[in-house]
Design brief:
Elements lengths: L1 E3 L6 H7 L9 E3 H4 L3 H9 L5 E3 L4 H14 L6 E3 L3 E5 L2 E5 L3 E5 L2 E10 L2 H4 L4 H17 L1 E2 L13 E8 L4 H4 L10 E7 L3 H18 L19 E5 L7 E2 L3 H8 L6 E5 L15 H9 L6
Parallel strand pairs: 1-3, 2-6, 8-10
Antiparallel strand pairs: 4-7, 5-6, 5-9, 7-8, 10-11, 12-13, 12-14
Helix pairs in contact: 3-8, 6-8
Length: 297
């Protein structure tokens, strides 16, 4: 990845923002497997041409700083930030769990998320959280760590934990109650996939990516509305703002069925493309941009 400094940020910011992620060429990370197939394939095709401006790393650096503050603390019976590797069908897969807590002779996975409070309010990323932790679990039980951990458990609990640290929490909104988190921090537990189901998922993702690597772009799977982070909105003729916003399409259509014919379903602007590094090569992006449905960055 080549980094630019189009805004002329001073050297102190440039050094702070520079992304030193421990990238391993030819290896599929857990987070990469969760990306849309189209995005991964185009990244692979253009990996020598990818570039990002350091200003786009500001939010990520806040998250990195929070992670690093945890790394400085020695938690008892806990292994932190160790990368695991495994092979499947001739491909290498890796992942770096934030926390491995040892209890009753087994590991329990924990992951730190510096994120918007709405990720918990709407619960729209639960599926990705479960898949990510499940891949980590599979890696620990089927692979090897980058360094010798000594005498540690080989079993991992199917219960995983996400520790949330909110970047946009509001005390005023918290006082309103509901499912808005009462604190700037939150903890949620998730039941993870079985190792068999996880391996099936990983194999499917690897197979799809490599199947399309040499195919022309017109044959690549299009990113779905879910992958583009679009949400169903109920609109009304003559009104510019949504009557009601939904997270689930079925809920939106059930609501719409009770309304008159002046109401209709419309999808929210595309958010994902603003965080994608391959839009300049993506024909789907060009189509959506011409339609004017890309959210303002």
């Amino acid at each position: 990845m080549k980094y630019t400094n189009k805004h002329g940020l001073p050297a102190i910011f440039e050094r702070w923002l520079y992304d030193d992620y421990d990238y391993h060429p030819g290896i599929f990370s857990a987070t990469r497997l969760l990306k849309p197939t189209r995005m991964v394939v185009l990244e692979k095709r253009h990996e020598d041409e990818l570039e990002s401006d350091i200003s786009d790393l500001i939010a990520a650096q806040y998250g990195t700083a929070l992670h690093q503050s945890f790394e400085k603390i020695e938690f008892p019976n806990t292994i932190q930030e160790k990368r695991f590797f495994a092979e499947l069908d001739g491909h290498k897969v890796s992942g770096k769990p934030d926390l491995l807590e040892i209890a009753d002779g087994i590991f329990k996975l924990g992951d730190l998320k510096s994120t918007s409070v709405w990720a918990v309010v709407f619960n729209d990323k639960e599926e990705d959280y479960i898949k990510q932790l499940s891949i980590y679990r599979w890696l620990i039980m089927n692979g090897e760590c980058e360094e010798d951990l000594g005498d540690v458990p080989t079993l991992v609990s199917r219960d995983g934990t996400i520790y949330f640290m909110f970047t946009d929490w509001s005390r005023k909104q918290a006082k309103g109650g509901g499912n808005y988190p009462p604190l700037r921090l939150a903890v949620k537990n998730y039941k993870l996939m079985s190792t068999e189901d996880t391996e099936h998922y990983i194999r499917g993702r690897l197979g799809a990516i490599h199947h399309y690597l040499e195919n022309p772009q017109e044959s690549l799977p299009r990113c779905t509305r879910k992958e583009l982070w679009q949400k169903p909105w109920i609109m009304k003729e003559g009104r510019k703002t949504p009557v009601k916003k939904f997270q689930d399409e079925d809920d939106a259509r059930n609501f719409l069925a009770q309304m008159d014919d002046q109401h209709f379903l419309e999808w929210s602007p595309v958010q994902r493309c603003n965080y994608c590094h391959v839009t300049r090569w993506c024909e789907q992006f060009k189509e959506m941009d011409e339609l004017g449905i890309i959210a303002e960055g």
